[in-house]
Amino acid sequence: MNMGSTMVVGIILLLSLHINPAFAQEAAPCWTEIATCLEEAKAQNYPEPLVLLCCPSISAAVTGDLACFCLGKPDIVSQDATALFDNILEICNIPDTLDTLCPDTLAPEPSIAPTEA
Q1: How far apart are CA 98 and CA 25, in angstroms?
Q2: What is the pLDDT of residues 41-85, one digit of tens each?
Q3: What is the pTM of this model?
Q4: C-beta contacts of 98-102 below 8 A and 24+ residues apart
Q5: Dist. CA 75–CA 57, nearest whole Å
Q6: What is the largest CA-CA distance in the chain?
Q7: Please, which residues have CB within 8 angstroms of residue 12's CB and are 6 or more apart in sequence?
Q8: In the chain, how many H helices and how many E strands?
Q9: Closest Cα partner for 71 from 60, 84, 83, 61?
């Protein structure tokens, strides 16, 4: 895929990203500013200057409360927007990807109850 095609795909993905503000306020307070900012950027088709305005909030969450930041990953993944969010991280000069910052963790093994003989 050439650079132009990659950019078009990235723009299409950006247009589809939606961070649910209700989720941000209830489940992950560090996402409140991020979600609000990205919603404003989305309203104008994610121009880079507006995405850059979101970078301080994103950087603060990544460096100050990574556990809270990672609570947003399921919402992003459910929208198939991981590549899009990785692009946002790149715009913000954050060298990591969403998967690097928030690796999937395995569910704990269920404990096996002893059986009576």
Answers
A1: 20
A2: 888 877 899 999 999 999 999 999 999 999 999 999 999 999 989
A3: 0.67
A4: 98/73, 101/62, 101/66, 101/69, 101/70, 102/66, 102/69, 102/70, 102/73
A5: 18
A6: 69
A7: none
A8: 8, 0
A9: 61
